[in-house]
Design a protein that fits this description.
heterodimer, A: alpha/beta, Amidase signature (AS) enzymes, eleven-stranded mixed sheet, 16 helices, 11 strands, B: alpha+beta, Arc Repressor Mutant, subunit A, 3 domains, eight-stranded mixed sheet, 15 helices, 41% helix
Chain lengths: 488, 480
């Protein structure tokens, strides 16, 4: 049960091979023993987890058990959890205990899942390495000298290191897919609006989207079944019908047209990473898929466009952290101005402050047209590029990241280099599309991710392609030595 | 130099909705601080706004009511600034694409003329909370009950030229929105707050001068006083060769003056941008049409109908259509008694006079329209005189019963019986032989005066109950 997939746990729990308390206890024990190395959790409430597991066991015994009953799931510390600290990786919310659950958490609880703990993350989800966390960086279980990626680095590390069978993340510009790629797990960013944002501490409202992170596409589908759906309390959540995301996992790939954007296979891509991606594509081709060259001509504008829109939205989303009602407040403010400036100066870290400044500048009078408005126009062009491709292909494929995980500290003082880590993932958020990262090999013992991008609301198809790939490969089954104590 | 005053008004109208514009909290006035603020209103992390459809409906009603262009696609924006009573650090408002575009509406001025005042736009937004600076020993308290209350900000063109016009405009606006039922119009509770933009220019000039904005003027009277004060202030500056600073000023009603406020914030950059947490508001023709069909008769239509149908003067029609309850009351009285002009007179003079003295409103009037119509009927059928009727009305106001009951109980029935009246007339003529002699020798004008004297004596003797018309006839017959 220790290294079981979510699908196996669901089965094992239902067949009473073990109890939820046993499963939950074993994960809590592993966290206690191992997380000193990974720093993948910010908060773990053992008593609450065990209590939830006990309740789940009762439901299982009563035969009244929704799909994920008894399965422990870790949640990125950006999802508000009723009665449990939600820090968002920031000193600003170090003392913040929400009196409500995010809709995602509510849905997991309603489906019987156990909240295992809250995972580490870049502060306010701003970062690609987890190094901007107030709680120190999470580390990559494949090599703890490496970053796990970010911003959902804690969730990726927890899953990769078997400190959780699965986890949730959020993805504003690659924050699920990039750490999934770096840690050798599967991570899905659904279509914008597919999963409710209510109760998720906002970074960039028009880009944020929550999704599952697990060992396989099959497990991601199980989690998405719980997460997806309309939420009347999130005006941007879609009321498009959901489907059983597991139901199409058997579809074959015969005749599936996969577009390969030439811009994603150009100079910036690490040669060895490219080789992994090429092998993966050959595998899909061997299953009947047709590889097609396509172009996303505005790709070069993706990074600057994203780094106007995301900071602009973030700059005002983070205005509410003012020391007045909750969260960090500076000591002994002498007046209102002092309260604001010191609270925010002391409560936010460097990367967050950098983005607030950039975003404030981009929205300022006299600059708005040149920056924010222009960026929104380019965003439409970027989206149109994808729509044009989807006229002739079913999905788009490429690398998730330009290279594998890098060492801690190597990019943390170079924001531009850090931003370029997300060069292949940002456009998916700008276009609101679903994207998934699938383990596709290793470069010098460092995992590499294959990114698949689908049409809006075609998560089931995307999961199916990922699943078929995983049926034929075992990259997703490999675990780091440290995690299993065994050779892979 | 002669200065012309150029005034534009921004009215913040609180819309009558059960819950707030972006959250489910109630909007009831006067609750204990922060008891009507939920997680959304407090801007707790992860909370999101959901638009209250009723607020949209009210805004569209206003747009249709002034014949404005209702925008089928409007967009909410964030207006960013830091203040403790603004929990999110931004106000959700509408900037580039307001729900109501250009329109205008007719205002009846004090002198009876009418003017069309242009409406630049009207947009939906949320109210902020309140900062309380007293009772906290040098600190400030925040009450977020009001945060998120739906407002419609109605911006006029700079078409207004003086304080009286501004007040007439506001009264007409108040009348319109209460007719539409989109606001309770309760000024004392802040349901209608006004910012006054005012500038001066030499008479005859077409260019606009530099304006000052006077914030949050909360009564018609204060608007008037604030404009007077600000006119004097600006004229003094200009006449002494100075320049007006564009700034926000506050009207202090205690000192009757305006003074500069937030001068540092005048250059505030609100960094407006489309609110990404809300979709654009998209409405279609059918929606606008349905609302248009549901509108009640509006003040101007009602006034015109009162003039045309009941033959009332524009002034009377305007007074009687001041509010829907008053207009309804008047129409019931007019229909009930069958004489609209007398009904109009009674409602305007006696009824409104009593209401004013009692400091109450038509909704709480102790005399029902049917009862007032009953009283007027008794005047019309000569059962009582107009003078007695006032006495009866007084008793009705005190709750002593219907007109007929009071007339019967007090024996106030008018005496029209010729025999009975003749006796009194004879008595009066007998007791005033001198005046009778004068009458017989007088010219036409003097005779009229003397008849008035005799009638007065008869009325006195009859305790006001004699039918003056018959008394007149009798006197003329006897004085030959």
């Amino acid at each position: 049960m220790n290294n079981s997939s979510v699908a196996q746990l669901v089965k094992g729990l239902r067949e009473r091979q073990y109890s939820s308390v046993e499963v939950t206890r074993s994960y809590l024990d592993r966290i206690a023993a191992m997380d000193v190395h990974y720093n993948s959790y910010i908060s773990v409430d053992e008593a609450a987890a065990i209590a939830a597991a006990e309740a789940a066991d009762k439901r299982l015994a009563a035969g009244d058990a929704p799909p994920l009953t008894g399965v422990p799931i870790a949640h990125k510390d950006i999802f508000c959890t009723d009665g449990m600290r939600t820090s968002c990786g920031s000193r600003m919310l170090d003392n913040f205990v929400p009196p409500y659950d995010a809709t995602v958490i509510q849905r997991f609880k309603a489906d019987g899942a156990v909240v295992l703990g809250k995972t580490n993350m870049d502060e306010f989800a701003m970062g690609s390495s987890n190094e901007s966390s107030f709680y120190g960086p999470a580390r990559n279980p494949w090599n703890t000298e490496l970053v796990p990626g970010g911003s959902s680095g804690g969730s990726a590390a927890a899953v990769a290191g078997w400190l959780a069978p699965a986890a949730t993340g959020t993805d504003t510009g690659g924050s699920i897919r990039q750490p999934a790629a770096f840690c050798g797990i599967t991570g899905l960013k659904p279509t914008y609006g597919r999963v409710s944002r209510l109760g998720i501490v906002a970074f960039a409202s028009s880009l944020d989207q929550a999704g599952p992170m697990a060992h396989s596409a099959e497990d991601c589908a199980l989690l998405l079944n719980t997460m997806a759906g309309h939420d009347p309390r999130d005006s941007t959540s879609s009321n498009a019908a959901t489907e059983d995301y597991s139901s199409r996992l058997g579809d074959d790939l015969d005749g599936l047209r996969i577009g390969l954007p030439r811009e994603y296979f150009s100079d910036g891509l690490d040669a060895a990473t490219r080789q992994c991606v090429d092998y993966a594509l050959q595998e899909l081709e061997s299953q009947g898929a047709i590889l097609v060259d396509v172009s996303l001509p505005h790709s070069a504008l993706t990074v600057p466009t994203y780094y106007i829109i995301a900071p602009a939205e973030a700059s005002t989303n983070l205005s509410r952290f003012d020391g007045v009602r909750y969260g960090y407040r500076c000591d002994d403010p002498v007046d209102l101005h002092d309260l604001y400036t010191r609270t925010r100066g002391e409560g936010f870290g460097e990367e967050v402050k950098r983005r607030i400044l950039v975003g404030t500048y981009a929205l300022s009078a006299g600059y708005y047209d040149a920056y924010y408005k222009k960026a929104q126009q380019v965003r439409r062009l970027i989206k149109q590029d994808f729509m044009n491709c989807f006229d002739s292909v079913d999905i788009i494929a490429g690398p998730t990241t330009p290279g594998p995980a890098f060492a801690l500290g190597t990019k943390s003082n170079d924001p531009i280099a850090m931003y370029l880590e997300d060069v292949y993932t940002l456009a998916v958020n700008l276009a609101g599309l679903p994207g998934i990262s699938v383990p596709a090999g290793f470069v010098e013992d460092k995992p590499v991710g294959l990114q698949l991008i689908g049409r809006h609301f075609h998560e089931a198809q995307l999961l199916n392609v990922a699943h078929r790939f995983q049926q034929a490969t075992d990259w997703h089954l490999r675990s780091p030595d440290f995690a299993t104590g065994e050779q892979h | 130099m002669q200065w012309e005053c150029v005034i534009g008004l921004e009215v913040h109208l609180q819309l009558a909705t059960q819950s707030k514009i972006f959250s489910g909290s109630p909007t009831t006035f006067g609750a204990a601080p922060n008891t009507q603020a939920n997680a959304v209103d407090l801007a707790m992390p992860g909370m999101l706004p959901v638009l209250n459809e009723q607020a949209v409906c009210h805004a569209v009603k206003f747009g249709v009511g002034i014949g404005a262009n209702v925008n089928k696609r409007s967009v909410f924006d964030r207006k960013n600034y830091f203040y403790p009573d603004l929990p999110k650090g931004y106000q959700i408002s509408q900037f580039e694409a307001p729900i109501v575009g250009r329109g205008s509406f007719e205002v009846l001025m004090e002198d009876g003329s009418t003017r069309d005042i242009g409406i630049t736009r009207a947009h939906l937004e949320e109210d902020a909370g309140k900062s309380l600076h007293e009772d906290f020993h040098g600190q400030s308290g925040i009450d977020l009950n009001r945060a998120g209350t739906p407002l419609l900000e109605i911006v006029s063109d700079p078409d207004i030229r003086n304080a009286a016009e501004a007040v007439a405009y506001l009264k007409a606006l108040h009348r319109l929105v209460t007719y539409l039922g989109i606001s309770d119009g309760n000024m004392a509770e802040g349901s209608m707050r006004c910012d006054v933009n005012i500038s001066l220019r030499p008479e005859g000039s077409q260019t606009l001068g530099t304006r000052a904005e006077i914030k949050n003027v909360n009564s018609f009277r204060f608007v008037e006083k604030a404009i007077h004060h600000e006119f004097e202030r600006q004229a003094d500056i200009l006449e002494s060769g100075g320049k007006i600073v564009q700034e926000t000023r506050l009207y202090d009603s205690d000192r009757d003056e305006t003074r500069s406020m937030r001068s540092k914030e005048v250059a505030n950059d609100y960094r407006y941008f489309p609110e990404p947490d809300l979709l654009p508001v998209v409405i279609d023709d059918a929606y606008i049409e349905a609302i248009s069909d549901s509108l009640p008769e509006l003040p101007r239509e009602k006034r015109d109908r009162f003039s045309a149908h009941y033959g009332l003067s524009k002034y009377d029609a305007n007074v009687l259509s001041d509010s829907r309850p008053l207009a309804d009351y008047f129409e019931s009285v007019a229909t009930g008694c069958g004489d609209a002009k007398i009904a109009a007179n009674w409602v305007q003079v006696e009824l409104l006079g009593q209401l004013n003295r009692a400091e109450t409103v038509i909704e709480n009037c102790p005399v029902s329209a049917i009862d007032l119509a009953g009283l007027i009927t008794r005047i019309l059928d000569n059962s009582i005189s107009g003078k007695i009727a006032k006495q009866v009305f007084e008793a009705m106001w005190q709750g002593e019963g219907s007109a007929d009951e009071i007339i019967a109980a007090k024996g106030l029935q008018q005496v029209s019986d010729t025999g009975a009246l003749e006796t009194i007339v004879d008595e009066v003529l007998g007791a005033n032989a001198g005046q009778v002699q004068q009458y017989l020798e007088a010219d036409e004008a003097k005779r009229k005066k003397l008849v008035g004297f005799f009638v007065g004596q008869v009325m006195k003797l009859s305790k006001g109950q004699a039918n003056p018309k018959i008394v007149n006839e009798l006197l003329v017959k006897k004085l030959v």
